[in-house]
Amino acid sequence: MSLATAQCEAREGDSSQSDAWRRRSRWPLVSIVVVNTNELHHLRRCLPALDRQRYPQIEIIVVDNASTDGSVAWIEEHFPHVRIVRNERNLGYAGANNVGFEQARGELIAVLNPDTEVDPDWLAEIAQALESNPRAGLATPKIVQMDRPERINACGNDVTFTGLTFCRGLDQPAQAYDVADAVAAVSGAAFVIRKQVLDEIGPFDESFFVYFEDTDLSLRAILAGYECLFVPRAIVRHKYLFKLSPRKCFFQERNRYVALLRLFRRPTLVALLPALLLSELIVWGYLLMRGPRVMWAKFTSYFAVLAAAGQIVRQRRRVQALRRVSDREILAHFGSRLTLAQTASPWLRNAAEALLNPLLFAVATLTRLVVRW
To answer: Which fold has domain 3-238?
Structure first.
């Protein structure tokens, strides 16, 4: 038994859910995977919160990406029950999480950013939601902002017909989004996936390195016939800060197109061309305000997609082999509204949404009419 489990059981008498737990004959083991890349300042908050979990069966795995900030030694000293997996080099978010997936023994696998702090019942709420919904392959909590917990960071992610993704509910009051619902994608900051689903659809795409891999994983799950579930009673705080560096711009844009090219049938990709052209207008319009470095990153992302053409074709065959639903059913999860919170000043954001949302709605409506398969 892990120290976290022992501490959890010792506190069960104070938990409102302890009687229900004692009546259960079995709770599935949950493996919590945390990727660390010089994140000691965040781990000081993240790991103690995990030890306060009231869920009775957990293991904690920290995958370290060759950190040099002393975080590994600190974990070994203060959290000896945490299993540490050391990478000799930085494998990125996707690759490091995949290492953790290989080490995980649980029937459920939780992915958690180190810059998060979870509520004590976070995991129990998600496990119960998954248990009551066999079609749900992944589940994501209500993520609020660490420094403004009265405001939402993400209630899952919205995916639009442009392929652009947005934090669902960003900057809305924390009391909003209080109903469990299927969403287009989970948030990579915190989610839980069934091990059997992960084995079926495959792990994160390591070629993505970082960004959009959570959306890609979610869309593959939907392609295979599963749902992504939002669980509003599971609360996680996240040190969220929106910024668009050249590096982020490159990976976001490259990975967005790679994911879409693998996911949809060719006729659907043709039908999506107007939406994708609109996305180019949106992205380039935004990047014009961000300076030449991010504009160059966007430009080079085109060549990266072309360079990966052979790999995309090979991966596309594997992704299409998962298909249990039609493209039309996948597109039913896509939205037709941009939410540009925190991307610009309020007046500019409102003006952009007023101009672009009717265009996106029209394009989405046309695409829905065309895609029948």
So the answer is: Spore Coat Polysaccharide Biosynthesis Protein SpsA; Chain A (3.90.550)
